[in-house]
Design a protein that fits this description.
8 strands, binds 1-O-phosphono-alpha-D-glucopyranose, Spore Coat Polysaccharide Biosynthesis Protein SpsA, Chain A, 8 helices, two-stranded antiparallel sheet
Amino acid sequence: MAGIVELADMADIHYVRQGEPLGLGHAVSVARKHVGDEPFVVMLGDDIMVDDSTVLTGMIDAYQQHGSSVVALMEVPHDEIGSYGCAAVDEPEGTLRRITAIVEKPDPADAPSNLAVMGRYLFTPTIFDLLEKLEPGVGGELQLTDAISDLLEVESVYGYVFSDGRFDIGKKIDYLRATVELALKRKDLRDDFLEVLRDVATREDLS
Ligand code: G1P
């Protein structure tokens, strides 16, 4: 009960239903009425960041500095880039780099870089007009990445590059790893949880 009261003090929660699974671009577009004519953040629930506050704060600072949309990017091994949105940028180094091109789930042979889009985005409301005109892309879905590519034609878009602390809990093994690692980082759980892990790891009936 205490947890519920605290959450209610922190934020008002509203939700809108996507209704049909037409893709991430469509999912964002259904929030248009709720968001209105404001910049807003998209956070994908299956991308968990250990240091979420730093990535998001950095992205919001970048928006305040440039007034532009910002996409979280992380370098991934070349053979994994085909699982992500992939961005080409104008600088080889630095946390904030201007995006010059972006493509959804490229064939690694054609990928413009190894910089993968992670599930944190800050958008100017311009994205909504572009989402409405979007045609289906990879997998027949309305792809948010394609709308970002269209956004590049009319506004600057920055990549906020970070390097670690991200779990893809859409993969079962990453979900399990995230649960264990994040629990071990908590002082209130660490000792008891270590004991549970040792017990489970040495149990003969589980081997
Ligand atoms: C979505 C996006 C992709 C992004 C990824 C991050 O893909 O379409 O651009 O890189 O999230 O997790 P999905 O994981 O839904 O296939």
